[in-house]
Amino acid sequence: QVQLGESGGGLVQSGGSLSVSCAASGLTFTTYTMGWFRQAPGKEREFVAAIRRSGGGTFYADSVKGRFTISRDNAKNTVYLQMNSLKPEDTAVYYCAARRTGILSTIQDPTQYAYWGQGTQVTVSS
User: Fold this and answer.
1) Which of 46, 72, 93, 98 is deepest in the core (most CB within 10 A)?
2) Are 123 and 10 in contact (CB under 8 A)?
3) What gap in Å lies between CA 1 and CA 18, rounded to an integer?
4) For the CA atoms of the chain, what is the radius of gyration?
């Protein structure tokens, strides 16, 4: 049974930093591209970042580029999202997700991800 478990969310002031992590089990971690998505109240789930199997390719939404960094530790089956210079509009539930290798152009499409965590709340106060 595949399980993805996020941790590390919380409350931070605008301009601050926060790191969230996602531990995976029940899958061969090194064969999956890992992604982070977020969903704010009343909004659709949106892509944040993704990292390819070997960690050699990373992708970011324009809204977080230069502020967020995704990384993975394949020895620990864990993916991380370091968030700096946080803004109130970054407030959302953050989800990690896993997908097998697919067409690169679909890496931002949440429907292409087979497994999802339960999410962790990130709140940025102004």
Assistant:
1) 72
2) yes
3) 29
4) 13
**Computed from CA positions of residues 122, 78, 98, 1, in that sequence, does the dihedral angle turn out positive or negative?**
negative
Distance separating alpha carbons of residues 9 and 74, to the nearest angstrom: 22
CA distance 71 to 58: 8
Query: Taking CA 93 as the corner, what is the angle to CA 95 and CA 7, rounded to the nearest 5 degrees?
Result: 60
Tokens encoding 110: 């949440």
**Are 96 and 116 spatial neighbours (Cβ–Cβ below 8 Å)?**
yes
Joined tokens for residue 4? 């993805």
Q: What is the CB neighbour count within 10 angstroms for residue 110?
A: 17
Question: Phi then psi for 49, rounded to 5 degrees?
Answer: -160, 160
CA angle 16/20/21 to nearest 5° reads: 160
Residues 6 or more apart whose Cβ sits within 8 Å of residue 37: 45, 46, 47, 48, 94, 95, 96, 97, 110, 113
Mean per-residue pLDDT for 11-33? 97
